[in-house]
Amino acid sequence: MANPTSLSVRAAAHEIASRRLSAEAYAAAWIESIEAQEAAVGAWQYFDREQALAAARRRDREGSGGPLYGISIAVKDLIDTVDMPTGYGSPIYQGSRPAADASCVALARASGAVVIGKTVTTEFAAFFPGKTANPHNLAHTPGGSSSGSAAAVAAGMAPVAFGTQTAGSIIRPAAYCGVVGYKPSFGLVARAGVKALADSLDTIGCMARSVDDTAFFIGVLTDRRDLREVSAPLAPRFGLCRTPMWDEAEPATRAALDRARAALLAAGARVDDVAVPEEQRGLAEAQDRIMRFEMARSLAWERVERADLLSPMLAQILDYGMTIGTGEYDAARAAVAKARQRLDSFFGECAAIIVPSAPGEAPEGLNSTGSPIFSRMWTALGVPCITLPAGRGDRGLPVGIQLVGRIGDDVRLMEAAMVAERALAEAA
Amino acid sequence: MANPTSLSVRAAAHEIASRRLSAEAYAAAWIESIEAQEAAVGAWQYFDREQALAAARRRDREGSGGPLYGISIAVKDLIDTVDMPTGYGSPIYQGSRPAADASCVALARASGAVVIGKTVTTEFAAFFPGKTANPHNLAHTPGGSSSGSAAAVAAGMAPVAFGTQTAGSIIRPAAYCGVVGYKPSFGLVARAGVKALADSLDTIGCMARSVDDTAFFIGVLTDRRDLREVSAPLAPRFGLCRTPMWDEAEPATRAALDRARAALLAAGARVDDVAVPEEQRGLAEAQDRIMRFEMARSLAWERVERADLLSPMLAQILDYGMTIGTGEYDAARAAVAKARQRLDSFFGECAAIIVPSAPGEAPEGLNSTGSPIFSRMWTALGVPCITLPAGRGDRGLPVGIQLVGRIGDDVRLMEAAMVAERALAEAA
In chain A, which segments carry CATH 3.40.190? Predict the structure, then answer.
């Protein structure tokens, strides 16, 4: 058999269930890649070869299991695991052992998944970066906050990895690292046991190498068969939106959107230009207000009792969050709620709207994870989002395009994403 | 000075800040009551006299603090405390020590509060009761899930106690125990560090002896000065709604609503009969679907890995929750979202709508905490709710009336509640 890491998640689970591939051999293939690359990439906060292999062997002994039977997965270290330390990217929690698995981890394990390790997160999924480098160029950021998850998938160290997004923490690192990143509709994946950053925004999702892998994984976790079995429809209609912050799109991102449009047109799809309504132009700022207000409260204990162990950047942001007035916060929430009610007319007949995933290629340097500007408004709205690799920029680094869908209609978004993914592959 | 337990929270904080009363003496007064009654009532899951007094003495040494400076508070044992074991009402977490305070505890402490202990919760805030009895008649349930918080306030063992509500877990026990229970608008109080039961429903609130105590406490925690300084307006208009489940209202509850109407009319207020629109009649059932679906996921790890330590009742409920289809869940969420958008016409010009708090007096026996039926739809809608003591039933136990307000307009609800509280006191 060829290297099992080349299989899709769905196919690998099938092979393992059919006993043609052992969970241990599957895990070992990823572990080999980890051991070859981790010193350079730094994607893992916690990785223990023997523990990962033992977990895989337990699956093999069980002999059968759920739809993720034997699938190796990576878990962002913002998410609790009962058998691995969970540090939330902060020295405050270094070596901390949660009393339980987070819901999403328990559900994945109950479906047969094998957690092979914890991936690096920025400090509490906010802005202060961890150690991870971009596998495509180690001098560049992998993006954040789900830095390790994106880098692990990009480097072939895991087939699928949990991420979380509060501003742009799945979409941006996935785009920077050249993988697929999927932020489901707000609330689709249960959040218990994930360290809260901003309660009205925090969303669990994943990174993987294909639309199908992400849909299959999240579909299994959420018991949504239509998501799990999603397939490409004949001719969905796309919108293309330059978004209110188009000025911040670099040439690499502009070119990626052009390539996506050309590829879709070549594949016979229709692509309409759509505009964000005037009254929704402040949503990125609203998201920023909401996030800063809520994170100062979510991290109240850390801000008050462990300030000396926060990065100066985060300490300052949390203090600032406490100065945002409740009137300003309420207005931002109200603006988002109002915009959410008007999304139908924005989408019109489009199955998905194409927007930038990030300003451009991953910036140089590991001191910042880049800007979430192109994700803020969509996260605030709670709509499902997915980023697809769409070529490379002038510096040779990956660039993504983001597709956004209707709240709660993740299936339609993923169908459209499959069409776009195929069109981009054919055009490449 | 008279017994400091007779002071309002606001007045006690003022006395302590003015050094006319020490935080230690204030705590000691509550502790005296705990030691006299706890053996019978069983409100506390964790209480250590010396630890509580030491925390109060630290406040006295600090010499000044926030608006809750020196105020003794009780914390439902569903809520994490870094210095006290947190058991979530389950043997699975017996003696468990969280790594941090929950947001609401950290914010209360940062405002000067003294946590004197942890109060009994039902198992994971679901239906299996703890040890607590109703202080008004020890053979009767205190209600749940915030059983210990309601009983502690009712028995004069704490001036204010944190509770949480997913169905009727603040309103019902407060009504059964004859105290004020306030469930703020969904999302008003930050939830990080509270064990999740149903993410789209879980709401933090409190019990206390007066509307002012609850508004002051939650107003301080949320930095909402208008809530903290709320006062009774001249003539708010009330609605009175028999709700779609009026058949389940016992004579004691019907009489309480009649008394409330008469008291408000005597006080010069206007009380209009209002009806729940036809399309909102299924919201209690929708809440039940949503809760059962979400709790099976929130407690996924416990369900799969610690089933032997769950009560048979909860184990069954969680297994059942996994059988609810996503279509049924999505339909319930959609029904709630639709109803939420139509609330304006339900409220009309009313500042608050009066509805039952519970079917009647607290049922006899400690094996069940009674029915949350009269809270389900309001919790689903996310509207703020408050229950006020409104006399007693035939068995001599307290009966409450519930006031519900507009989402996000807790101030207007609390203003109306102050008017109702005064009218009921004048009529008594």
Answer: 237-281+338-427
